[in-house]
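Helix-hairpin-helix domain-containing protein structure dump, as promised
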Amino acid sequence: MKQVILLLILGIIAPKLQAQVSNEDILGTSAEGVSEETFENWLQIQSNPIDINRVDYEFLSGLGILSTIQLKAFFDYRKSFGPFVSIYELQSIPELSLEVLKKLAPFVTCGQEINSIGRDLRLAKSWVLLRISQTLEEKKGFSPPTKTSIVRYADSPVKSLLRYKYANPKNLSIGFTIEKDEGENNWTDFTSFHVQIQNKGILKNLIAGDYQLQMGQGLATGGGFSLGKSAETILFTRKPTLGGRPYTSTLESGFFRGVLTNFQWRKWQGLSFISRVSRDANQLEPDSLGVVNVSSLQTSGFHRTTSEIADRNALLETNLGGGFSYQSEFSRVGMMLHYTYFDKSLLKANKTYNQYEFAGFQNILLSFYYNYTLSFAQVFGEITRSSSGGYGAVLGALGSLNRRWDMSLLFRKFTPDFHSFYGNAFSENTRNINETGIYWGIKFMPSRRWQWTAYVDYFYFPWYKYLVDKPRTQGFETLLKLSYQPSKLSRISGQLRLENKEENFSWKESYIENNKTKTRTITEVTPRYRWTFNSYYTHKLTSNISIQSRVSGSAFKFQKQNATNGWAVSQDAKWNKGAWSFAMRIAYFSTQDYDNRQYTYEQDVQYAFSFPAYYGRGWRYYSVLSYDINKNLTFWLRWSRTDYINQETVGSGLDEIPVPHRSDVKAQIRWVF
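structure tokens r here:
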């Protein structure tokens, strides 16, 4: 009876859920401050949807789409009515609005999908993706060398990607990625692979090859999708314990290479992992004993010039670890040990801000984490200690006060001598070190049409930082976003953010010495402020055409100095019909300096992303065309161009283009079989 009712309503519900939702709509934020790794991890989840009949509370909450009340409603429904027969059945849950379901749809599948005879339609599936891209104008790195400038890139300006994946949603995944950046001389410059087996008796998860690991709040291992501070002020405050996941990204750092196993017996889980991977590092000159050390780890993944090639695979890194946890339906508590060893000693530059940085061959992390879910709230935390004696701690809570109000609160503390190479916990700094902070987020939904989100974050840095020549500095950040949906076809949103930090500010001062006027540089740590504003209007003109208008602006100043500013305006249009889809943009931007660069998300080919920083003055255009050649073969083509006003070149160094414009093309084809 359940299947018959569902079949009757599929024709009504399906078109609504299949409506396209942009990446930015799902992320709930502008692209500013979102790392490349975050987008890559998010795309990995999209390319491997989760089965709503198998997903647990931890993973589903980690998507950052469902509130605590909505999560409880989902699992209560599944427990009461049994397995879902289709993702469209989710609309039977009153707490899940159509907008929420649109955001959730790209991430989920259903192992019970039905047809007229009730067979499984989501059998094992493979796909191959090939992508090539290139900048059309010649960069300096590809021009002939001169007597005064001989350093050049090693090979052609073509960037290529080949990716294969076989996925059975129940228990098996196999895949590999082969990538070459522009200027590199080997089309297999970066290769990644994995084999994953799941749900075989007590064997919950086995990965051989490349993988990421996310446990607790990410203090020891935080290799997963999480936005941190964003316009989604509640759900991304907490990180889920996802365990091990195959790594399919093109980023050439931040992953393990080896074997991970995860066993489950009743409510107990045990996890172990081993990894040996060569990493790019900046090698120092041999010391008096002929020993070679490294000064820093390189994460760009570029191997185009002689110096970049010399840094390639310069450091062999070994990681060992394991732990156990006890998990019930809505709670988990666990411990983990993580050991890292380098075959060369890591020695940072002799700078004051590096005094507490890691130095040596090995690091050990011991971590304790927990989370507990009530009917309306979640409490969570992690405390981790490194072998240096430093520690990190994240403690927080989030929940739904009622159907209209959500709130989150988080405290974190990372001592200056806390060292974690794979940590990615909630923080202001890009790394979990030298920081104390407290964050408060709120979301108010007075009706289905209105939504108001805000946060306030205070942070304190006890020791010196890069470009901050003073200990015990502090700052704050606050955001306010208002969204209004006057109809199902339109949406309006505005967001204002203020950030205040203490940083170095330098200026020239004149003085007289021996009856001569001289100048000297004075550097002082002083507060600096940055205001940013983003707004957009989206409207669906017809069933096939939609438009979006966007305005953004910013202002930047140091205390007692004049402010600089920048702004951008853009117009987007999208069209799709049958096998064809087309999107385009025209934008104008004007910024006084790089501090006022404007970030705006751009649509790209599938499983790719683009969020360039507009700065200077000029025009930006792009278009994306896709065509389903047949049910198994899809082709994409993207073109973009930036024309600058009042400047003669684009870029700097080996990336300099000797004309005031830059054009890029990208082609992609995907075969599903």
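The first strand starts at residue 50 and ends at 51.
lmk if u need the other ones
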